[in-house]
Specification:
Layout: H1 15-24, H2 41-50
Length: 54
């Protein structure tokens, strides 16, 4: 079963600053696909803490 969760933020807000709220709302997942704007060590660490198997 696929689940899509999206978060809209103002254009002047960096994607990375919106990520913690989005990650906190993620359901359990086998995979997470995100735009390259979310590619940072800090965000990867947050996702790994939430979903240790990813």
């Amino acid at each position: 079963m696929a689940c899509q969760l999206s978060l809209r933020s103002p254009v002047e807000v960096n994607d990375c600053s919106a990520a913690p709220d989005l990650i906190a709302r993620l359901p359990d997942a086998e995979a997470i696909v995100a735009d390259k704007g979310y590619d940072s060590d800090c965000i990867r660490e947050q996702i790994t803490k939430k979903e240790p198997g990813l």
